[in-house]
Amino acid sequence: KRTPKEVKATLKRLSKGSAALDNAYKDAIQRIEGQLAGDHARAKEVLSWIAYAQRPLTTAEICCALAVEHTQEELDPENVPDVDDLVSVCAGLVVIDDRSRIIRLVHYTAQDYLERIMEVWNPRAQKEIASTCLTYLSFDGFKSGTCSTDEEFEQRLQRHTFLDYAS
User: What sections of the sequence does the record tag as coiled-coil (predicted)?
Assistant: First the structure.
C-alpha cells in the first residue's frame, strides 16, 4: 500500500491469530502460483527442500541440489541457479542468514504451514529429494569408491558441495 490511509484500511481488514498467519501464507502461495511456470516450479522445489531437509541447507548446497539433472552423470555448472533468484521466486517466504549462509524459511510458522499443505501442494517432494540425492551420489566423480585417507575425504567434500547432505 502506498498511502497511510490504504495501510490503515488494510490493517483493519486483517484477521488475527493463527488464521491471520494462514491467510498471509495462502497469499504468498497464491503469489508463487501466479508467477511464470518456471518460477512457480522453482519456488516449489526450494520450499520443498527447505521444509523437508534433514538439516538446514547452505545456499551452496541448495543451489547444487537444484542443479542436479537426473539424466546426467555429473553436475553441469551452467545449471546452478543464482541464490538471489531462489529467494526472489519464493515470495518472501525464505531468507538467507548472512553469517552462516543458511537458507531458511522466514519464520517457524511457515514451516508449520508448509507441512500442513505440502502433501497437496507438492505431493512428490520427498520422492524428488531422495531421487536427487541418489542421482548425485551416482555421479561419475564418486565411482572410484571410498576415500583412503581423511585428507582425501576432506578434498572430496570441498570439490563436491552437496556430498555431505546427499550422503
Answer: none
At 40-57, the pLDDT tens digits run: 999 999 999 999 999 999
CB 57 within 8 A of CB 103: yes
- Which position has the grid cell 523437508? 52
Residue 47, C-alpha cell as written in the block: 520450499
Give the 3-state secondary structure of the chain: CCCHHHHHHHHHHCCCCHHHHHHHHHHHHHHHHCCCHHHHHHHHHHHHHHHHCCCCEEHHHHHHHHHCCCCCCCCCHHHCCCHHHHHHHCCCCEEECCCCCEEEECCHHHHHHHHHHHHHHCCCHHHHHHHHHHHHHCCHHHCCCCCCCHHHHHHHHHHCCCHHHHC
- The 10s digit of each residue's pLDDT in 24-35 is 899 999 999 999
**Which pTM does this prediction carry?**
0.87
**Closest alpha carbon to 152 in 139, 141, 140:** 141
